[in-house]
Write the structure tokens for this entry.
Amino acid sequence: MNIAIVGTGYVGLVTGVCFAEFGLHVTAVDTNEERIARLANGEALIYEPQLGEMLRRNLRQGRIQFTADTARAVRESLVIFIAVGTPSKDDGSADLRYVEEVARTVAGNLNGYKVIVTKSTVPVGTGRRIQRIVHEEIRAGSQGVFDVASNPEFLREGSAIEDFLRPNRVVIGADSPQAVAILQDLYRPLYLIEVPFVITTIEAAELIKYASNSFLATKVTFMNEMANLCEALGVDVHVVARGMGLDHRIGPKFLHPGPGYGGSCFPKDTSALVTIARAHGCPTRLVETVVDVNEQQRLRMVQKIVGALGASSDPGSLMGITIGMLGLAFKPNTDDVRQSPAVVIISELQRLGADVQAFDPAAMEQARRVMPKVDYREDAYSAVEGADALVLATEWNQFRNLDLERIKGLMRRPILVDLRNVYDPERVRLLGFTYCGVGR
């Protein structure tokens, strides 16, 4: 079976490579010809474990190809996945211009039956919108037979390959039994490992994605609020989280306090859900609060750093202060700095006058584009040289067992602000550090 993936960003590239791994013939499309050339040369372009190796293997075996010719890819494929960006507008709603462009291109190149599938995260009603666009754009006399389906992705950055090859579930939303059967056939290897399939309407599939991410964001935010309360009460948040997580109705995942959620999904999807709900007269007050609390959590982390330094929050109060920052990506095992708490925190620290020197194992190239005034260092130890405080913002494995005695000797003041609660407070304090965690 030939399939086309339109969009070679995070979702599109992972989806295309993994479908090729399933033995399908994949044509991945992007308008950026330089990007296409580099991908065709085996450069993964994003940091994701296993992705580069899998990409090069499927290129060698001829199961995936890259092109800027969307029209040809549509004509040669039975299934066309739309995996383009849906960035947030100023009002929080999803910008669907790229999705609509793809729909028009598909309509102009129908040469037989096609299944048009939204893989991008799109608002409820987008599938119907695509149907209308294609019907309106079909040229007179063309073989305009098609179905539209929704097949949302549930890929965690840093674990995306594993999530695609061994998912918790596959959601397929479609009206047509033929479209459902074709999509089920694409995922046939997953039946061998008994992956559950949710077959539903287009609208339900679209909402499942937003509802899932908003619920996970709510768990993260709730635990951050509990961490703040733990600090006020003198309680260890990790004990509270364990006591909660042992309840099977709650579960232990996403109960880790920190500087708030980030990345390309949770911030965008929670804002979009709020906008969708308001438009339909059903305000989601809980999700609205989650969005607001998450923003405040990042600023609370800045206050934590300022407090540890014995400074104030006035502009210029950190003049002459150097902060060593470990971690720039919003989570480990990715180079994604979109909506990263570290970016917000660094920006605020710089606004207060601090100099920031930072290290991240994968995200420094991306970070330079949005924070050019940071002093980027070659490793964790050079990032803390002469620093008045060390801030651990992303819990990369290589940051979990640092030589703290060496770090203490490199710093001007031994202050560790551990925003991910990686280190044991008592051990760190015994080494002579001032330690500040989250909810401890």
Remarks:
- The mean pLDDT is 95.
